[in-house]
Amino acid sequence: MVLDKFTESAGSKLGERAAGVLTTAPVAYAASGLALWLVTVGPGTGWSRLTNWVSGQESPQLLAWVVAGLLVIAAAGAVVRQFVPRVIPLLEGYWPPGLRRLADRGAGRAWERRKEAVEVVRELAPAIHAGTATPDEERRYVAADGRRSRLPSREVWMLPTRLGNVLRSAETRPWDKYRLEPVKLWPVTWLVLPDAVRQELIAARGRLDSAASGLIWCLLGVAFGWIAWWSVPLALLAAFAAYRFWLLPAGSDYADLFEAAYDVHRFDLYAALRLQPPDDAAAEKVTGVRLTEFIWRGGGEQGPTFVHPGCNQQASGQGQSAHADGHG
Predict the structure, then answer these.
(1) At what angle do helices 25-41 and 195-220 cross, to 10 degrees?
(2) Residue 66: pLDDT band by 50, 70, 90 thresholds?
């Protein structure tokens, strides 16, 4: 009786735990292995073996097996998540020195694609702006402009993979537009961003990490080759699909939000650092360089002049009051 109560209580808590675990990639991986085994031995025969084994277990034993399975699934998911920060740079194209030549060739091909896209944009821009472009020309212009925007503007910034260039273009575009270097400024930028923006960036980065984790699990499906050889090409195809239809869109979303953070909140940097903001777009490229250098290297002897709006307003108010008192 006591054991039954314990089993019931543990089972209810286990159900709560399972609700957050059974929809994870490790469960999908285990289910894929089970389905592959059923197909290999025969669906009827395999299912009969499985149901006979389950029916032959006592409740405590079955509960122990379920708990052990959930622990293994949770541990496997934790291990894969530890590899995600190391896998994403590889997917971006930051490869070891032994693959430098291959990386350079990939980056060179990406640069050629960007030059082709820029030529198409330049060729069709007059007709687009004049409103005389044909529907086909408009489609070509939009496609070429989209390709151009997802590739860095300098050859030295190119990476050999599409994901790497999508993220690198977002990292370098604030430099192209405002002469702000996000890699150097990101810790300071993060502190001045509103909470809502930070939460959006965290969520977008989480989706990118989840997509990378899903790609890893797809590649781990190669291990099922010992059950059936044809599972290896299926796993590789699934990994390609995860990269193309899951990882790249997640990377694009994160890149768009990252760039937009500087588009919208770059003046918050000037305000937080008490630096004079630029007066116009032309001056912004000069002040952007100064701001980046100030954060990266410090002010030095020829450092910038700080602006304290509150103090200036207070001083201005005191001056006006004194002027009024003098006239009074």
Answers:
(1) 20
(2) confident
